[in-house]
Amino acid sequence: MNMSEQELHQLFTSASMGHVAYRAWADKARHERRFNIARLFDALCEARGARAMRAFFAVDGVGVTARNVDQALNGEEPQAVAMQRITGTSERSRELLGRAAQAIAEGRDLLANELGDLYVCTTCGETREGTLIGACPICDTVPEAHKQFLVIEAMGTLGPHAIMHALEHSEATLRAMMHDLDESILVCPGNDNAPSLKEVLGHLNDMNLVFCERVRLILDTNNPELPSAHPPRLNAAVHYRNRDINAILEAFHESRRDCLLSLRGLTSAAWHRPATHVSYGHINLLHQGNWMVHHERTHLVEMAQQRHDLLVSCGKAQLDANRPDLIGERLNEGE
Predict the structure, then answer these.
(1) Is residue 316 domain-resident?
(2) Predicted confidence (pLDDT) per residue in 284-310, tens digit
């Protein structure tokens, strides 16, 4: 179907806004531990992005790099176009989102048998579920040019080296973050009455214990079924407010040391040992390692911001004035 320039600008505008909306919703879903719903939003984000890109090319929005730089410096002039619906724009996306809505109504994430592997055509944004067979039915793009959003990769795609690197450096990051803070700051709630730094540190220790248990279960048992119950919630760590900060750090040190001893030197086959989880289906140790790293790094970033905000509010901003990035180098997928 041929579209007018006005319709193409309209599609570009609405698809671009839908792309941003889905991306923001995916981040929020991960924060709420709804990783399959986040994976669905990621796929729909990719689909809207592909449609926006196609429309942008069609209205001659992309030229030689010299022209593109000139347009970037001068600013693209917005087209005055009537808005279309920006999300849930296809029957397929509405059907997938309907499954997510049902899961949310039941207070849970989508289960592995409720959302299969997703594949998005990078040319037109057509989304398919299950096994990818044949070219795109809409634009004839080959399967190799589709982006995949697999169940087993819902937590991330870091390899053993990157997972170990992250887990080995967390303790140093936490100690650096805490070392010059007095008790009044360590127990002070964050913005919107968020848990204190002590509580978040205790929560990370609780999560590490759960991860260690799962590591041993996967390594010592053939295809174990991992407990379906959620790991300990952050609000369960309130008792850490009354514990000495050095004691909490030492507890984290010991649990992390034990965990690293179990993981260090594992073969590729060991990292790929299978397990079963009610929400994620057939997974492996890499899946759980990605889960742990994602969870931990999310909290480390939040803790760094909370530390900074508390120091500013109590007139001690100078303690953070020349502080480097405590988390350090970012991790590359597949390492």
Answers:
(1) yes
(2) 999 999 999 999 999 999 999 999 998
The one-letter code for the residue type at 179 is H
Looking at the structure, tell me whether residues 85 and 222 fall in a common domain: no
Q: Give φ, ψ of 205 to 5 degrees.
A: -65, -45
DSSP output for 158-206: --HHHHHHHHHHHHHHHHHHHTT--HHHHTS--GGGPPPHHHHHHHHHH
> Does the structure show a pLDDT above 80 at 228?
no
The two three-digit tokens of residue 129, written as one number: 């579920």
How much of the chain, in percent, has pLDDT values that exceed 70? 94
Q: Which residue has the higher pLDDT, 331 or 50?
A: 50
Range list of H helices, the chain: 5-31, 35-58, 65-74, 91-105, 160-178, 183-186, 197-220, 245-263, 268-271, 285-313, 318-321
pTM (two decimals): 0.82
> Are 169 and 113 contained in the same domain?
no
Given its phi and psi angles, is residue 130 left (phi above 0), alpha (psi -120 to 50 degrees) or beta? left
Domain span holding position 186: 160-321
Question: First-to-last CA distance in the chain?
Answer: 43
Q: 55-98 pLDDT, tens per residue? A: 999 989 899 988 888 888 887 665 655 567 889 989 999 999 99
**Whether residues 177 and 310 fall in one domain:** yes
d(CA 214, CA 254): 17
Q: Are residues 33 and 101 in the same domain?
A: yes
Assign 323 to helix, strand or coil: coil
